[in-house]
Amino acid sequence: MTEYAGTKSLDAEIVLDFIKKNVTMDYTLNKFGSPHNSNYSVTLNNTFRNLPFFQKIIQSSTSVGIMVLLTIPIVFVMPIMTFCTERNWITNPKIQYNYQKILKYSMLSTRGMYEQVKDGELPEPMLMFCISNNMWFEYELSGEYQDKIKSVSLKRKFITHYVFGTYPKQQQHGWNVIFEFTDIPKSGSCILRHTA
Amino acid sequence: MDEKEINVEILNADTINVKHLNVETHDVKEEDITKAKKKGSFFGDPILVIE
């Protein structure tokens, strides 16, 4: 057994290159994050943090105001809607749509929105994004991504969870948004926005 | 929430195919297909929105 350890005991991005026959440990992005949260703390371009102080206050107060205005009715409406949807009592799509729009704006004001972008030539006629919830997502295609699109799917993502590290079970772990193309797109882009 | 999988087969949108009692397929208008190739949004419960 051979170990290839980094010289620093810090989080690193690691690349094992089979052509160059080397392994690279990259600590560059550590300075943008916190060692206490190695999975989600690195922030590259925080436009909110760079805003002037008063603009920050106005932005956050507006967001909190919307959150409060939406949260109060949602607290009362949500149990009723959940009760009704579980029994398939809501058959009017307009009610369903309006209710989900309110939930969407509530989530956007409290937890924000994520955006993922893929552009340029793809290695295969398929593109997949992982999202944590299926509350709402929006896609925008351009160039050959738009010309060659075949289907857009929202599918449950399943992974194997080994309970106590031993007993396997297939468990859902968020959702996949899958774009299938008639041929490999060589140019263009795909933007995916979704609730956090 | 009653979560369902959504699958919009853009090329075969003219056909209605009910594969299973829990699977439903809706027709999508030709003009909406053109719009959906550019932009669209989904709600998980499930609603497809083409503007």
Short synopsis of the structure:
By secondary structure, chain A is of the alpha+beta class.
Low-confidence stretches of chain B at least 5 residues in length (pLDDT < 50)? 11-19
Rounded Rg of chain A: 22 Å
Category by helix and strand content of chain A: alpha+beta
* Beta-strand fraction estimate of chain B: 15-25%
The rounded Rg of chain B comes to: 11 Å
Helix % of chain B is: 10-25%
| DSSP summary, beta strand count of chain A | 8
Main sheet overview of chain A = 3 strands, antiparallel
Order of strands, widest sheet of chain A: 3-8-5
Q: How do the helices and strands follow one another from N- to C-terminus of chain B?
A: EHEE
Mean pLDDT of chain B: 72
Oligomer: heterodimer
Global geometry of chain B: flat
Main pleated sheet of chain B = 2 strands, antiparallel
Give the overall shape of chain A, derived from the CA principal axes: globular
